[in-house]
Automatic annotation (TrEMBL):
Native species: Phycicoccus endophyticus
Protein name: Pyrophosphohydrolase
InterPro entries: MazG-like_dom (IPR004518)
Keyword Hydrolase (UniProt): yes
Any one GO MF annotation of this record: hydrolase activity
Ranges of residues in domain NTP pyrophosphohydrolase MazG-like: 25-76
Length: 93
């Protein structure tokens, strides 16, 4: 699934509810999911890590939708490697 499609699916599925909840609450949910991901990475199974990565990316998509950010455009800064030095791999000190 590409990012534009993900944002569309998240918008159709949760958009109205997430906008009603608001950006501050969405940020809080995202932070909670990042914590769950950290725990899954440290102590979880592969299936648990997949689940938590999916949740984090979904909440990022929801937050992007609420704030009018196109994730594909935002991530284009990494298309050619490091946005600072242009290297791939990065050559920054």
């Amino acid at each position: 699934m590409d990012l534009a499609h993900l944002q569309e699916v998240i918008e159709r599925t949760y958009g109205e509810r997430d906008r009603a909840r608001g950006v501050p609450s969405t940020v809080a949910w995202l932070a909670e999911e990042v914590g769950e991901l950290a725990q899954a990475v440290r102590k979880g199974t592969h299936a648990q890590r997949e689940h938590e990565f999916a949740d984090v990316v979904a909440w990022v998509a929801s937050l992007a939708n609420q704030t009018g950010v196109d994730l594909e455009l935002a991530l284009a800064r990494y298309r050619e490697g490091c946005p600072r030095c242009g290297g791939m791999p990065c050559h920054c000190p």
